[in-house]
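Field reference: sequence -> structure
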Amino acid sequence: MTEIAALLARQPIVDQSKKLQGYELLFRSDTPNALQATDGDRVTSELLDNVFSAFDLDELVGDNPAYINCTRNLLLQKTLINPDRFVLEVLEDVKLDKELLTCLKKLRDEGFTIALDDFELDSQTIKAIPFVDIIKIDVLVHNKEEIATLFNTLKQHKVKLLAEKVENYQMFEYCKQLGFELFQGYFLCKPEILSGKKMESNKLVVMELVTKLQNPEIDFDELAGIIDKDPSIAYKLLKLVNSSFYHRGKNVESIRQAITILGLTQVRNLVTILMLSKLTDKPNELTITALVRAMMCQLLAKNTTGTDPGGSFLVGLLSTLDAFMDQPLNELVASMPIPDSYKEAIIHFNGLMGTILVNTMLYEQGAWQKINWCELSEHNITDYAMRDAYYNSLKAAQALQNL
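Structure field:
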Protein backbone atom coordinates (compact mmCIF):
# COMPACT_ATOMS: atom_id res chain seq x y z
CA MET A 1 0.00 0.00 0.00
CA THR A 2 1.39 3.40 -1.02
CA GLU A 3 1.89 5.80 1.85
CA ILE A 4 -0.02 9.05 1.47
CA ALA A 5 1.42 12.37 2.54
CA ALA A 6 -0.62 14.13 5.19
CA LEU A 7 -0.77 17.78 4.16
CA LEU A 8 -1.43 20.02 7.12
CA ALA A 9 -1.65 23.79 7.46
CA ARG A 10 -3.10 26.23 9.97
CA GLN A 11 -5.06 29.48 9.90
CA PRO A 12 -4.83 31.98 12.76
CA ILE A 13 -7.91 33.14 14.66
CA VAL A 14 -7.58 36.55 16.32
CA ASP A 15 -9.63 38.91 18.46
CA GLN A 16 -10.56 42.57 17.89
CA SER A 17 -7.03 43.63 18.88
CA LYS A 18 -5.60 41.15 16.36
CA LYS A 19 -4.24 39.11 19.24
CA LEU A 20 -3.99 35.38 18.55
CA GLN A 21 -6.77 33.27 20.03
CA GLY A 22 -6.23 29.94 18.29
CA TYR A 23 -5.59 28.15 15.00
CA GLU A 24 -7.83 26.14 12.74
CA LEU A 25 -5.97 23.06 11.53
CA LEU A 26 -6.51 22.33 7.83
CA PHE A 27 -5.85 18.84 6.57
CA ARG A 28 -5.74 16.79 3.37
CA SER A 29 -4.55 13.21 3.00
CA ASP A 30 -5.13 12.62 -0.70
CA THR A 31 -2.45 12.01 -3.29
CA PRO A 32 -1.21 15.25 -4.85
CA ASN A 33 -2.73 14.53 -8.26
CA ALA A 34 -6.20 13.87 -6.85
CA LEU A 35 -6.85 16.38 -4.09
CA GLN A 36 -10.59 15.92 -4.12
CA ALA A 37 -13.16 15.81 -1.33
CA THR A 38 -12.95 12.55 0.60
CA ASP A 39 -14.89 10.90 3.38
CA GLY A 40 -15.07 13.44 6.18
CA ASP A 41 -14.74 10.86 8.95
CA ARG A 42 -11.50 9.57 7.43
CA VAL A 43 -10.12 13.08 6.98
CA THR A 44 -10.66 14.17 10.58
CA SER A 45 -9.61 10.80 11.98
CA GLU A 46 -6.34 11.02 10.09
CA LEU A 47 -5.88 14.62 11.17
CA LEU A 48 -6.08 13.59 14.81
CA ASP A 49 -3.83 10.63 14.16
CA ASN A 50 -1.24 12.90 12.56
CA VAL A 51 -1.48 15.48 15.33
CA PHE A 52 -0.63 12.82 17.89
CA SER A 53 1.87 10.73 15.90
CA ALA A 54 3.52 12.70 13.10
CA PHE A 55 3.35 16.23 14.51
CA ASP A 56 3.94 17.92 17.83
CA LEU A 57 0.78 19.83 18.78
CA ASP A 58 2.78 22.41 20.75
CA GLU A 59 4.86 23.16 17.65
CA LEU A 60 1.70 23.48 15.55
CA VAL A 61 -0.33 25.75 17.80
CA GLY A 62 1.74 26.54 20.90
CA ASP A 63 -0.49 27.10 23.93
CA ASN A 64 -3.43 28.10 21.74
CA PRO A 65 -6.56 26.00 21.11
CA ALA A 66 -6.71 24.01 17.87
CA TYR A 67 -9.97 24.20 15.91
CA ILE A 68 -10.73 20.94 14.08
CA ASN A 69 -13.57 20.02 11.72
CA CYS A 70 -15.81 17.23 12.97
CA THR A 71 -18.32 15.08 11.12
CA ARG A 72 -21.43 13.61 12.70
CA ASN A 73 -19.89 10.19 13.32
CA LEU A 74 -16.79 11.63 14.95
CA LEU A 75 -18.90 13.77 17.27
CA LEU A 76 -21.01 10.79 18.27
CA GLN A 77 -17.97 8.58 18.90
CA LYS A 78 -16.17 8.69 22.21
CA THR A 79 -13.22 11.05 21.72
CA LEU A 80 -9.94 10.77 23.63
CA ILE A 81 -8.62 14.23 22.81
CA ASN A 82 -8.01 16.85 25.47
CA PRO A 83 -10.95 19.30 25.75
CA ASP A 84 -8.56 22.02 26.91
CA ARG A 85 -6.61 21.90 23.64
CA PHE A 86 -9.29 21.56 20.96
CA VAL A 87 -12.36 23.39 19.68
CA LEU A 88 -14.74 21.01 17.89
CA GLU A 89 -16.19 22.56 14.72
CA VAL A 90 -19.53 21.10 13.61
CA LEU A 91 -19.49 21.08 9.82
CA GLU A 92 -22.32 22.80 7.99
CA ASP A 93 -23.60 19.54 6.45
CA VAL A 94 -24.02 17.77 9.81
CA LYS A 95 -27.67 16.97 10.55
CA LEU A 96 -28.56 18.74 13.80
CA ASP A 97 -31.20 16.32 15.04
CA LYS A 98 -32.06 15.39 18.64
CA GLU A 99 -29.32 12.76 18.86
CA LEU A 100 -26.63 15.20 17.74
CA LEU A 101 -27.85 17.99 20.02
CA THR A 102 -27.75 15.59 22.99
CA CYS A 103 -24.20 14.72 21.99
CA LEU A 104 -23.19 18.40 21.83
CA LYS A 105 -24.59 19.00 25.30
CA LYS A 106 -22.62 16.04 26.64
CA LEU A 107 -19.41 17.24 24.99
CA ARG A 108 -19.84 20.71 26.51
CA ASP A 109 -20.46 19.15 29.92
CA GLU A 110 -17.12 17.34 29.46
CA GLY A 111 -15.41 20.68 28.92
CA PHE A 112 -15.26 20.91 25.13
CA THR A 113 -15.75 24.18 23.27
CA ILE A 114 -18.17 23.72 20.36
CA ALA A 115 -18.32 25.85 17.22
CA LEU A 116 -20.80 25.84 14.34
CA ASP A 117 -19.01 26.24 11.01
CA ASP A 118 -20.39 28.22 8.03
CA PHE A 119 -23.55 29.09 9.95
CA GLU A 120 -26.81 29.73 8.09
CA LEU A 121 -29.93 30.49 10.10
CA ASP A 122 -32.73 27.95 9.58
CA SER A 123 -35.13 25.78 11.57
CA GLN A 124 -32.38 23.24 12.32
CA THR A 125 -29.45 25.47 13.20
CA ILE A 126 -31.44 27.74 15.52
CA LYS A 127 -32.11 24.73 17.77
CA ALA A 128 -28.36 24.10 18.09
CA ILE A 129 -27.47 27.59 19.36
CA PRO A 130 -28.00 26.79 23.08
CA PHE A 131 -25.50 23.93 22.81
CA VAL A 132 -22.57 25.76 21.21
CA ASP A 133 -20.05 28.39 22.26
CA ILE A 134 -18.90 29.88 18.94
CA ILE A 135 -20.73 30.55 15.69
CA LYS A 136 -18.67 31.10 12.53
CA ILE A 137 -20.14 33.26 9.77
CA ASP A 138 -18.62 33.16 6.28
CA VAL A 139 -18.49 36.83 5.32
CA LEU A 140 -17.55 36.05 1.71
CA VAL A 141 -20.94 34.53 0.90
CA HIS A 142 -22.97 37.38 2.44
CA ASN A 143 -23.23 41.07 1.67
CA LYS A 144 -22.88 43.60 4.50
CA GLU A 145 -26.63 43.86 5.08
CA GLU A 146 -26.95 40.08 5.42
CA ILE A 147 -23.97 39.96 7.78
CA ALA A 148 -25.53 42.66 9.96
CA THR A 149 -28.89 40.86 10.01
CA LEU A 150 -27.27 37.58 11.05
CA PHE A 151 -25.18 39.30 13.70
CA ASN A 152 -28.14 41.15 15.22
CA THR A 153 -30.15 37.93 15.38
CA LEU A 154 -27.36 35.91 16.98
CA LYS A 155 -26.06 38.52 19.43
CA GLN A 156 -29.15 37.89 21.57
CA HIS A 157 -27.69 34.48 22.44
CA LYS A 158 -24.75 33.68 24.71
CA VAL A 159 -22.31 32.78 21.95
CA LYS A 160 -19.13 34.27 20.51
CA LEU A 161 -19.43 35.30 16.89
CA LEU A 162 -16.51 34.63 14.56
CA ALA A 163 -16.20 36.25 11.14
CA GLU A 164 -14.37 33.84 8.83
CA LYS A 165 -12.86 34.36 5.37
CA VAL A 166 -12.11 37.99 6.19
CA GLU A 167 -9.97 38.93 3.19
CA ASN A 168 -9.17 42.60 3.82
CA TYR A 169 -9.04 45.23 6.54
CA GLN A 170 -12.19 46.95 5.31
CA MET A 171 -14.23 43.84 6.10
CA PHE A 172 -12.34 43.37 9.37
CA GLU A 173 -13.24 46.90 10.47
CA TYR A 174 -16.86 46.45 9.41
CA CYS A 175 -17.26 43.22 11.37
CA LYS A 176 -15.38 44.69 14.31
CA GLN A 177 -17.78 47.65 14.45
CA LEU A 178 -20.74 45.28 14.37
CA GLY A 179 -19.32 43.52 17.42
CA PHE A 180 -17.77 40.28 16.19
CA GLU A 181 -15.31 38.99 18.79
CA LEU A 182 -13.19 36.65 16.66
CA PHE A 183 -11.81 36.83 13.12
CA GLN A 184 -10.26 34.39 10.65
CA GLY A 185 -8.91 35.07 7.17
CA TYR A 186 -5.99 36.45 5.19
CA PHE A 187 -6.46 40.12 6.08
CA LEU A 188 -3.52 39.92 8.51
CA CYS A 189 -1.20 39.43 5.53
CA LYS A 190 -2.68 42.31 3.54
CA PRO A 191 -1.69 45.99 3.67
CA GLU A 192 -3.94 48.62 5.20
CA ILE A 193 -3.57 50.89 2.17
CA LEU A 194 -5.34 54.24 2.27
CA SER A 195 -5.36 56.53 -0.77
CA GLY A 196 -2.69 59.21 -0.47
CA LYS A 197 -1.37 57.79 2.80
CA LYS A 198 2.32 58.45 3.43
CA MET A 199 4.59 55.99 5.14
CA GLU A 200 4.87 56.69 8.86
CA SER A 201 8.21 57.88 10.20
CA ASN A 202 8.95 54.71 12.18
CA LYS A 203 8.27 52.61 9.08
CA LEU A 204 10.50 54.87 7.01
CA VAL A 205 13.36 54.20 9.42
CA VAL A 206 12.80 50.44 9.27
CA MET A 207 12.44 50.54 5.48
CA GLU A 208 15.72 52.44 5.16
CA LEU A 209 17.50 49.85 7.31
CA VAL A 210 15.90 46.94 5.42
CA THR A 211 17.00 48.49 2.13
CA LYS A 212 20.52 49.03 3.48
CA LEU A 213 20.68 45.39 4.56
CA GLN A 214 19.94 44.26 0.99
CA ASN A 215 22.84 46.21 -0.47
CA PRO A 216 24.94 43.54 -2.23
CA GLU A 217 28.11 45.44 -1.27
CA ILE A 218 27.47 45.29 2.47
CA ASP A 219 30.46 43.75 4.24
CA PHE A 220 31.09 41.84 7.46
CA ASP A 221 31.89 44.88 9.62
CA GLU A 222 29.05 47.01 8.26
CA LEU A 223 26.47 44.29 8.93
CA ALA A 224 27.83 43.68 12.43
CA GLY A 225 27.74 47.43 13.08
CA ILE A 226 24.06 47.70 12.11
CA ILE A 227 23.17 44.82 14.44
CA ASP A 228 25.28 46.09 17.34
CA LYS A 229 23.40 49.42 17.31
CA ASP A 230 20.21 47.65 18.40
CA PRO A 231 20.71 45.39 21.46
CA SER A 232 17.22 43.88 21.15
CA ILE A 233 17.92 42.80 17.55
CA ALA A 234 21.29 41.36 18.56
CA TYR A 235 19.72 39.42 21.43
CA LYS A 236 16.89 38.00 19.32
CA LEU A 237 19.26 37.12 16.49
CA LEU A 238 21.43 35.04 18.81
CA LYS A 239 18.35 33.32 20.24
CA LEU A 240 17.09 32.52 16.76
CA VAL A 241 20.48 31.32 15.50
CA ASN A 242 20.68 28.96 18.49
CA SER A 243 17.16 27.60 17.89
CA SER A 244 16.61 24.06 16.57
CA PHE A 245 16.22 25.33 13.01
CA TYR A 246 19.78 26.71 12.80
CA HIS A 247 21.62 24.98 15.64
CA ARG A 248 24.99 23.61 14.45
CA GLY A 249 26.12 21.68 17.53
CA LYS A 250 27.62 24.46 19.61
CA ASN A 251 26.19 27.70 20.91
CA VAL A 252 26.74 30.87 18.91
CA GLU A 253 27.74 33.53 21.44
CA SER A 254 28.48 36.65 19.36
CA ILE A 255 27.18 38.48 16.30
CA ARG A 256 30.47 38.06 14.49
CA GLN A 257 30.44 34.34 15.22
CA ALA A 258 26.89 34.13 13.83
CA ILE A 259 27.96 35.89 10.61
CA THR A 260 31.02 33.64 10.29
CA ILE A 261 28.99 30.44 10.74
CA LEU A 262 25.83 31.32 8.81
CA GLY A 263 27.26 33.77 6.31
CA LEU A 264 26.38 37.33 5.38
CA THR A 265 23.28 36.42 3.36
CA GLN A 266 21.64 34.30 6.03
CA VAL A 267 22.30 36.75 8.85
CA ARG A 268 21.08 39.82 6.98
CA ASN A 269 17.92 37.91 6.03
CA LEU A 270 17.28 37.10 9.69
CA VAL A 271 18.02 40.67 10.76
CA THR A 272 15.53 41.88 8.14
CA ILE A 273 12.67 39.87 9.67
CA LEU A 274 13.67 41.01 13.16
CA MET A 275 13.64 44.64 12.00
CA LEU A 276 10.14 44.21 10.58
CA SER A 277 8.95 42.54 13.78
CA LYS A 278 9.69 45.77 15.66
CA LEU A 279 6.76 47.54 13.97
CA THR A 280 4.41 47.77 16.93
CA ASP A 281 1.24 48.44 14.93
CA LYS A 282 1.42 45.01 13.29
CA PRO A 283 0.14 41.77 14.84
CA ASN A 284 2.74 39.22 15.89
CA GLU A 285 1.09 36.68 13.61
CA LEU A 286 2.21 38.67 10.56
CA THR A 287 5.84 38.25 11.63
CA ILE A 288 5.29 34.53 12.14
CA THR A 289 3.64 34.19 8.72
CA ALA A 290 6.50 36.06 7.07
CA LEU A 291 9.11 33.90 8.77
CA VAL A 292 7.31 30.63 7.95
CA ARG A 293 6.93 31.66 4.30
CA ALA A 294 10.57 32.72 4.00
CA MET A 295 11.93 29.59 5.67
CA MET A 296 9.67 27.31 3.65
CA CYS A 297 10.89 28.92 0.42
CA GLN A 298 14.46 28.44 1.60
CA LEU A 299 13.97 24.76 2.47
CA LEU A 300 12.23 24.00 -0.84
CA ALA A 301 15.01 25.76 -2.76
CA LYS A 302 17.50 23.38 -1.15
CA ASN A 303 15.68 20.50 -2.91
CA THR A 304 16.25 22.06 -6.32
CA THR A 305 19.15 22.97 -8.55
CA GLY A 306 19.60 26.36 -10.15
CA THR A 307 18.27 28.54 -7.34
CA ASP A 308 19.81 30.07 -4.23
CA PRO A 309 18.21 29.08 -0.88
CA GLY A 310 19.24 32.40 0.68
CA GLY A 311 17.69 34.29 -2.21
CA SER A 312 14.51 32.25 -1.91
CA PHE A 313 14.33 33.13 1.80
CA LEU A 314 14.55 36.81 0.90
CA VAL A 315 11.94 36.49 -1.86
CA GLY A 316 9.52 34.84 0.57
CA LEU A 317 10.19 37.44 3.22
CA LEU A 318 9.89 40.48 0.96
CA SER A 319 6.60 39.15 -0.47
CA THR A 320 5.04 40.23 2.85
CA LEU A 321 6.60 43.70 2.85
CA ASP A 322 3.39 45.45 1.76
CA ALA A 323 1.56 44.13 4.82
CA PHE A 324 4.28 45.51 7.10
CA MET A 325 4.61 48.90 5.40
CA ASP A 326 1.01 49.45 4.19
CA GLN A 327 2.26 50.41 0.75
CA PRO A 328 1.94 48.72 -2.68
CA LEU A 329 4.37 45.81 -2.94
CA ASN A 330 5.61 46.65 -6.43
CA GLU A 331 6.59 50.18 -5.32
CA LEU A 332 8.43 48.93 -2.25
CA VAL A 333 10.35 46.23 -4.09
CA ALA A 334 11.21 48.47 -7.05
CA SER A 335 13.28 50.74 -4.79
CA MET A 336 15.34 47.94 -3.24
CA PRO A 337 18.88 47.01 -4.36
CA ILE A 338 18.04 43.37 -5.09
CA PRO A 339 18.46 41.45 -8.37
CA ASP A 340 15.76 41.90 -11.01
CA SER A 341 15.09 38.16 -10.89
CA TYR A 342 14.08 38.54 -7.22
CA LYS A 343 11.73 41.39 -8.10
CA GLU A 344 10.17 39.33 -10.90
CA ALA A 345 9.66 36.41 -8.52
CA ILE A 346 8.00 38.60 -5.87
CA ILE A 347 5.75 40.66 -8.15
CA HIS A 348 4.96 38.28 -11.02
CA PHE A 349 5.97 34.86 -9.61
CA ASN A 350 8.42 34.45 -12.50
CA GLY A 351 11.32 32.01 -12.52
CA LEU A 352 11.95 29.08 -10.21
CA MET A 353 11.94 31.29 -7.10
CA GLY A 354 8.57 32.66 -8.21
CA THR A 355 7.24 29.12 -8.64
CA ILE A 356 8.41 28.19 -5.17
CA LEU A 357 6.90 31.38 -3.71
CA VAL A 358 3.43 31.08 -5.26
CA ASN A 359 3.09 27.41 -4.31
CA THR A 360 4.31 28.12 -0.79
CA MET A 361 1.60 30.77 -0.47
CA LEU A 362 -1.03 28.32 -1.72
CA TYR A 363 0.17 25.72 0.75
CA GLU A 364 -0.03 28.07 3.74
CA GLN A 365 -3.64 28.88 2.73
CA GLY A 366 -4.53 25.19 2.56
CA ALA A 367 -5.33 25.61 -1.17
CA TRP A 368 -3.57 22.37 -2.07
CA GLN A 369 -5.80 21.71 -5.08
CA LYS A 370 -4.37 24.85 -6.73
CA ILE A 371 -0.73 23.85 -6.26
CA ASN A 372 1.05 22.90 -9.49
CA TRP A 373 2.33 19.55 -8.24
CA CYS A 374 3.49 18.43 -11.69
CA GLU A 375 5.70 21.49 -12.16
CA LEU A 376 7.09 21.15 -8.64
CA SER A 377 7.94 17.47 -9.20
CA GLU A 378 10.08 18.51 -12.17
CA HIS A 379 12.21 20.41 -9.65
CA ASN A 380 12.40 17.53 -7.17
CA ILE A 381 9.78 19.05 -4.84
CA THR A 382 7.32 16.39 -3.67
CA ASP A 383 4.25 16.54 -1.48
CA TYR A 384 6.37 15.18 1.36
CA ALA A 385 8.96 17.92 0.81
CA MET A 386 6.24 20.58 0.94
CA ARG A 387 4.75 19.15 4.12
CA ASP A 388 8.10 18.79 5.86
CA ALA A 389 9.27 22.26 4.83
CA TYR A 390 6.08 23.79 6.20
CA TYR A 391 6.22 21.88 9.48
CA ASN A 392 9.92 22.58 10.06
CA SER A 393 9.33 26.25 9.33
CA LEU A 394 6.51 26.31 11.88
CA LYS A 395 8.87 24.87 14.48
CA ALA A 396 11.39 27.61 13.78
CA ALA A 397 8.62 30.23 13.96
CA GLN A 398 7.64 28.95 17.40
CA ALA A 399 11.23 29.67 18.49
CA LEU A 400 10.80 33.27 17.32
CA GLN A 401 7.48 33.55 19.15
CA ASN A 402 9.22 32.56 22.37
CA LEU A 403 12.04 35.08 22.05
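Note: The chain has a mean pLDDT of 86.
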